[in-house]
Amino acid sequence: xxxxxxxxxxxxxxxxxxxxxxxxxxxxxxxxxxxxxxxxxxxxxxxxxxxxxxxxxxxxxxxxxxxxxxxxxxxxxxxxxxxxxxxxxxxxxxxxxxx
Length: 99
Known about the structure:
Layout: E1 18-21, E2 24-27, H1 32-42, H2 49-59, H3 62-72, H4 76-91
Antiparallel strand pairs: 1-2
Helix pairs in contact: 1-2, 2-4
């Protein structure tokens, strides 16, 4: 019989975290496959508008994108900040932008 190691108790099965904007909670996808795709998209030297939009669509589930697009109606620069903060939240970085 092969060796088995149960690592269940070492893993975190918490719910996805949220960003709060104007009192609205926006869920952020933090599953590993999604984040690996996002890191691949954003790691290129030529990350531009298309890459930011691709990452945005991966990081935020449709319900969160609906709030951003239909209720918050953010400018592109603000949307970039929201996406960057979502990355910071997922990666556990407490640094605030611009500091």
